[in-house]
Amino acid sequence: QVQLVESGGGLVQPGGSLRLSCAASVTIVSFYAMGWYRQAPGKQRELVAAITSGGSTNYADSVKGRFTISRDNAKNTVYLQMNSLKPEDTAVYYCNAERRWIAIPSVNYWGQGTQVTVSS
Known about the structure:
Blueprint (H helix, E strand, L loop, with lengths): L3 E4 L2 E3 L5 E7 L8 E7 L6 E7 L4 E3 L7 E6 L4 E6 L8 E11 L2 E7 L3 E5 L2
Parallel strand pairs: 2-11
Antiparallel strand pairs: 1-3, 3-8, 4-5, 4-9, 5-6, 7-8, 9-10, 9-11
């Protein structure tokens, strides 16, 4: 069974930084893509950042220039470096991984989430 475990969340002041980690129980090179989503109270879950096995990245407009997604294949871990944090970044952040096969639907896996709170 694939397990994704997030860590690194917490309370930080506006303008501060946090680094989230997502550790996978399997080699992450088996995933087509991995990413981070977030969900704030009363809001829809939204894509924050994603990275493919080939290294291509995608970011939400609201975090572009402030957040960076990266991976360490040897550690089977994906990271989200969050800088210049704003109160509106407050949310539960979820790790996601996608597998794809020829001619069958893709499969997505989710972590349990980690809380990020940006407040003075």
